[in-house]
Backbone:
């Protein structure tokens, strides 16, 4: 039987300054990735690209942009939510943050190391094939694995979740388990791959399985944030929390299957690559089906910024899924697909951060500022994805700025340039709003009041 207890005061526990540290790491990564994106958009925009030819390091900027905008941004915000739900105690609790932050900084500074740096544009995790970057990447990965393991140990459910807080913990446990499985898949590939492979093949196969598992982690993180946003104000899920927990547990199955695939199939076998791809598709559609199944009641009671985030994020995710179904070969349809999907994740995380700011000691931001920023970013990503898709459908190729294309493809790239600049402006607007909010911090407040224990519907 579904009771009528409100979702508006979840049991999110005591605050800890470490949460602010994870937030600052995430926002710094997103802002720096936007700076790199300026170079990338300029390098692909007709007219501007000709002026900049030979003056920017496109490949190095692409490596840093992808790793900062997806890997560091998304996982650092997962770290924020893990510490938010289970605050770190003592200095040792901040070690994972120090490792992750140090690793991200080393990756950022690695292009300054002297000498020519080989760039490998491998899928999911492109790299600079030099010691500084690889050590930084390993340190960041170790920090995230430590944070994930800590959360699983502390938040593992002892009974079936029936409250909002317990459901959020279960969802965040799923994210943490996916991060840990991604690390395990990476280590298995590292142990199995022969060292004599061409460098491009080596890194592609090294990160293929782990990269696909990380996509599952991002999908689970997106689902958790959607649930959180839908519970703001007077919002209520259409299903009781105990049923929502079942949907979240179903989302763990692709992650567990990924580990089986990594163990059972050789890393260089085509069957393994195909199995991971299929698994990611299944995991993505599980997220959409879950969103539809869970539903939302009391839509009008949800604050405007949270409603806008939910609607635009779901729209971008659907656009990305549609573009993904149209991919035929290695064209610009591929980045069109993943920019829409990762844009959906980033937009949801931005909206989620806005709801947490007052509880981190930041000032409340005006609704109109948040909605303008969210709308600008979402429209920019959508236009950029559509421009890339248009160009890709007319022969535009990936990872090769300046390649000859016809006029129709050029029109798509012009659209991409306008959308990309709008999306970048949206990111800078987000960073500026956080600076405004956190610049007036009043200190870390006490925990929110605990809600009565009961089933949530």
Residues:
């Amino acid at each position: 039987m579904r009771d009528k207890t409100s979702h508006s005061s979840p049991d999110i526990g005591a605050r800890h300054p470490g949460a602010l540290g994870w937030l600052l790491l995430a926002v710094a990564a997103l802002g720096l990735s936007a700076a790199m994106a300026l170079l990338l958009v300029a390098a692909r925009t007709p007219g501007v690209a000709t002026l900049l030819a030979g003056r920017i390091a496109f490949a190095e900027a692409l490596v840093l942009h992808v790793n900062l905008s997806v890997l560091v941004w998304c996982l650092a915000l997962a770290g924020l939510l893990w510490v938010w739900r289970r605050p770190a105690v003592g200095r040792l609790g901040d070690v994972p943050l120090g490792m992750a932050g140090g690793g991200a900084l080393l990756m950022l500074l690695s292009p300054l190391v002297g000498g020519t740096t080989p760039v490998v544009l491998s899928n999911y995790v492109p790299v600079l094939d030099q010691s500084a970057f690889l050590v930084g990447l390993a340190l960041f990965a170790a920090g995230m694995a430590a944070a994930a393991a800590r959360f699983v140990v502390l938040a593992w459910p002892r009974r079936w979740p029936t409250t909002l807080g317990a459901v959020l913990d279960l969802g965040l446990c799923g994210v943490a388990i996916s991060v840990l499985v991604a690390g395990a898949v990476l280590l298995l590939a590292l142990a199995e791959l022969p060292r004599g492979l061409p460098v491009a093949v080596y890194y592609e196969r090294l990160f293929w399985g782990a990269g696909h598992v990380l996509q599952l982690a991002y999908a689970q993180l997106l689902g958790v944030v959607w649930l959180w946003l839908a519970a703001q104000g007077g919002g209520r899920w259409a299903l009781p929390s105990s049923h929502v927990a079942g949907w979240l547990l179903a989302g763990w199955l692709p992650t567990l299957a990924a580990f089986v695939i990594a163990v059972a199939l050789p890393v260089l076998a085509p069957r393994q690559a195909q199995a991971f791809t299929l698994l990611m598709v299944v995991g993505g559609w599980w997220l959409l089906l879950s969103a539809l199944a869970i539903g939302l009641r009391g839509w009008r009671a949800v604050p405007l910024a949270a409603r806008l985030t939910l609607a635009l994020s779901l729209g971008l995710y659907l656009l990305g899924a549609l573009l993904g179904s149209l991919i035929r070969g290695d064209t610009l349809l591929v980045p069109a697909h993943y920019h829409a999907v990762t844009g959906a994740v980033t937009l949801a995380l931005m909206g989620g951060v806005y709801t947490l700011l007052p509880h981190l000691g930041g000032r409340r931001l005006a609704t109109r500022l948040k909605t303008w920023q969210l709308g600008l970013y979402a429209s920019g990503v959508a236009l950029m994805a559509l421009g890339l898709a248009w160009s890709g459908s007319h022969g535009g190729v990936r990872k090769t700025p300046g390649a000859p294309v016809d006029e129709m493809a050029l029109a798509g790239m012009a659209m991409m340039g306008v959308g990309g600049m709008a999306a970048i402006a949206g990111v800078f607007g987000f960073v500026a709003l956080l600076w405004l909010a956190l610049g007036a911090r009043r200190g870390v407040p006490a925990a929110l009041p605990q809600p009565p224990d009961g089933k949530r519907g």
Observations:
- The chain is about 70% helix and 0% strand.
- The two ends are 9 Å apart (CA to CA).
